[in-house]
Write a structure and sequence with these properties.
- InterPro entries: MrpF/PhaF-like (IPR007208).
- The chain crosses the membrane at residues 6-24, 36-55, 61-84.
- It is a multi-pass membrane protein.
- By secondary structure, this protein is mainly alpha-helical.
- It has a single domain (3-90), classed as Orthogonal Bundle (Helix Hairpins), CATH 1.10.287.
- The chain is built from three helices and no strands.
């Protein structure tokens, strides 16, 4: 049994724990910004799951999915930061 086969369940559990915590923050977040950061974190966790699936299965398609999610996440975060900056300037 190789090292990655032994680490995959532990890494999956760590990602599930992070998924639960970020989901909780998204539901309970006191502000809109907290909720958006939780969604950002959920997307990053999805990238982690796709990367872990790539390593576990050896299929490169999942790495393409991870890259696509990461790019969408980056653009969404940049757009949200521009939105917050404009909102701050209007005050």
């Amino acid at each position: 049994m190789n090292l990655m086969a032994m680490l995959t369940p532990a890494l999956s559990l760590a990602l599930v724990a992070a998924l639960c915590l970020a989901g909780w923050r998204m539901i309970r977040g006191p502000s809109f910004v907290d909720r958006f950061i939780a969604i950002d974190m959920l997307t990053a966790i999805a990238v982690g799951f796709a990367a872990l699936t790539t390593v576990a299965t050896g299929r490169g398609v999942f790495l393409d999915i991870a890259l696509g999610l990461a790019l969408i996440n980056f653009v969404a975060t940049a757009a949200f930061s521009v939105f917050l900056e404009r909102k701050r300037r209007d005050r």
